[in-house]
Amino acid sequence: MTREPELSASPPEPAGEEAEWITAAQAGDRGAFARLVDRYWDRLYRWLYHMTRDRHAAEDLAQETFLRALAAVKSFRAGTNFRAWLFRIGHNNFVNQKRSERRTKHQLPDDTPAHDVTTAEGTAENREVLEVVARAVSDLPPDFRSALMLRVDEGLSFRDVAKVLGTTEETARWRVFKARQKLMKVIPPELLPAGAGDEG
Amino acid sequence: MNCDAVQNLILALPDPRELTPELREHTRGCAACAGFARRAAKLETVLAALPVPAAPEGKKADLLDDLTRPDPMMLPMPAARRSGGNGVAERAARFLRRNAGAAAGLAAAALIAVGGLWFATRPPKPIPDELAKVQKHPLLDKVVARDVQLARAASPTQKLEALGGMAEELAGEARGMARLAPGAELRQMAGWYEKVVRDGLVPQSAKLPPHVPAAEKAALLQTIATKLDADAAAADKLSGEAPQDAQPALKRIADAARDGGQKLRAAARGGN
Amino acid sequence: MTRWPHTLLAFVLLSAWAGAQNGAPALTAEDKVRLFRDNSALIESLVNDGVALSAAETPVKRAEHSRSAARAIVNAIAQAATAENADRVVELAGLFRTVARDAVVPALDDARRVVSPESPDGKKLRELREQAARDVSDVRAAAPPTGKLGTNARVKDALNALDEISDALK
Q: In this structure, are A21 and A82 located in the same domain?
């Protein structure tokens, strides 16, 4: 297993309640670490689900990530980006797991909670779009998919995406671009209508 | 710029929904690229809205429970399994054995955050104090923290917990001020309490979604109703001891609490 | 759960212990009344915003009411700045930062994920983001660098801490 990542040269994070929680967790305060779990679990789980397409695996990975983060929290450098550090651990766990487990793709389950997508189309059409896009995303190479969802869903900058994935900002930017390019090609144009007057 | 280059630049943006002025200028004059830009924007929105099923086994709650459980020196350690054991309890136990010194030293700090009291009804963390010498109003800090909690609440359950906490804090402040503040100010606080209960707690109690099991719904609403009963009892008791000026406000709080408690109990039974 | 009685007792004892360790000076009766009077208008706004937030059914509404709470604090900062009360400006700037960072920005980001940019909600969202950015500018403008407050080191630190908010709202 690789050593926990050391993220360098990030701009210092402003002091805030999270910085206090981290400091306390580094001093052994498990309650403080619990606050960090509460803050980041759902987001990490979401991203890991997009990576694994399996909610059991995503949940296991999320748990494993936080346990490893708990064990390694003293190595986290105060003032750097905790979220990126945490997601980096999650990414390492995912990569390690991929080597040893066969990934199972799941059809979108019927009880999947849909976000409130505000469009003029009906619910059935929304659902079709979501299913097709979800399938297309799951067909992306993992490197492209991980970068894309960190950028789009987690809202990380290209620089922070690069930190999570252990690559350069240029490569992170390239992977997101390639992911979008592939999706635009494979998703039928009628499912992503350009609106009235489109000649494209 | 040719259209291929423009379309590639759109896809390379941090967010294709926010075109640079140069790209926007091009798309104004090029229908093909304008259409492409709209499709790329739609894709970005759909990507951000991809649904994710709920985690199946509640491991978040398990982990939080493990992290906030009392010091293992006070409770029997779970039976050690083989070192490859993957249960959360086993993992937490291994972590604690490796860090026993630090864990023991901070057992008191961990206990403050322990149990369902912390998880369900904890007061929000106080706003970090920039300057220790500035006199800060604890109630202002608490209300701000509750507003943040409400802004982040993802479900009626979380909203109810935040509103219940806010009501409790307002009632507590009113009781603390009953012997100090003039009647007008206490009436103001009573009005805030009434608003939180009548316009916050009661409507939200009716919005718990159908998929929340009835027993869970009833337990949550009963818990909050019990706290409202406690607010009413405390206000009634204090009303007998506080200055006359304070009594109308305390009565208003007691009435609002009782009324709210009744409505929450009715919602718990399945009717409003 | 059988461990609850132990948990509850430990919680009560430790809360008392923690309270005794707290180094903050106790407030006198006069302090409490004064603080209440100084803050009652702001607290009332924030209570109203909190109730409105609980009723907010859409991400855009959540963003709107989060921003309203932040704006209430901005208005209080302006009053404190007019009175040249540096301590108050610092205190309120800290609260503004918390609301903007932990409520407004996340609410705007959440809404942006699910709102179609061309829809009326998309337009509203853009307006809210611009308003939120103006709120930060207004806080800075309340204590211009050349004025008495602006040269106060604590005020400067409090305003510099808003840089993360400005960045997040770009």
A: yes
